[in-house]
Amino acid sequence: MLAPERRSRADLVVAAGIAVAVVVALTVVWFRSDARGTTSVTAAEPPPALVTALTVPETLSPIWDSVSSATAPLVVGGAVVTAEGGDVVGRDRMSGAELWRYERDLDLCGVTASWEKVVAVYRDDRGCSQVTELDGGTGERLAQRNSDADPAVTLTADGTYVASRGDRRLELWRSDLVRTVEYGRVDAPVNPKKQPRSGCTLIDAGSSSSRLSVLERCPGEVADRLTVMNPSPKDNQEPEEYGSSVLAGVDAGVEGARILGVSGETTAVYLPAGRTTGPRIGLFDGTGNAVSEYALALKIGPDPVTSASSSVVTWWTGSDVVSFGASDLVPRWTFPGALGPGAVMAGNLLVPVESGIAVLDLSNGALLRTIPVARDTTTGPITTTVAGDVVLEQRGDGVVALR
């Protein structure tokens, strides 16, 4: 039998030093890791699937409320999702009770929903760069990504892609959070000169399964530029443009143009009034060429809001709701005196007004009746969402559920 090797005092000191170094290293990694500042409480099972309402209720009363400044209420996987600070919470639609919670020690840049999932974007020292995808019904963590981003972003979802737009940089993600388009500012690009323009300010963006449209203001140009691109080019770092041109008929220095919607290959753009033209809506084809214009006899406020569903696109101008066809984006009708863009329920459009909720005929905008609702505010925007037979209103930094 072999005798054990003799160990010196120095060997023991070295071994102890290595063990201490490993413990210290692991402790440092833990304290600096994202996991240390993350709490994830999932639901054992998703809530029951929502049953579509067949009729609009005669009366509505508050049943619960919650703070939610980081997102208007989202209905995902049967849950109502709210967000505040660094917390994203899935709630029971009837009681507001927490079903699941995802919490981080970072501030939320925004939260949106697509693919029956929740997409939460957090801010770190690289901007709004940390992205987490959550199952809407259980809150389970799914895909994640981390990349360069602007300090503030606007999130939009079209059902196929989610866009994250800052003032200088835009990314488009598919359902596994893989980036399909990188547009605008690129720090230390691996292959320079792949971006078509530099130094432009990104004003607005919208997308569909076949088009990504961006409004931008570039140095030396008199008006905003509309750029229409492939949302899924061969190389995500090299945008594939179908067309790009400065908006015609917009006076030099006039600001306020906005993308109202993208459907198929068509893009609807609000064109502000100039010296010789009034405000109007322009429709552009898949290469960014103007197809038609529709004059507007409306006052446009500073913070208009657009809402889209499978049956209609609505635009709240600050005082009126304009309805568009969901497939062709042609303006259909206008309803005055609104506090927000509304939402579809049982084949009608529910629009918040000072006295309550106006029930409109979806085809022509005719007022069918008004459901009385008491609020502590008579100013918009009020964003409306429907979860089965529950109506949700975003009022300022809080959400109120009505039934």
UniProtKB/TrEMBL annotation:
SUPFAM superfamilies: Quinoprotein alcohol dehydrogenase-like. It comes from the Bacteria. The chain crosses the membrane at residues 12-31. The keyword Transmembrane helix applies. Keywords: Membrane, Transmembrane, Transmembrane helix. InterPro entries: Quinoprotein_ADH-like_sf. This is PQQ-like domain-containing protein. It comes from Rhodococcus koreensis.
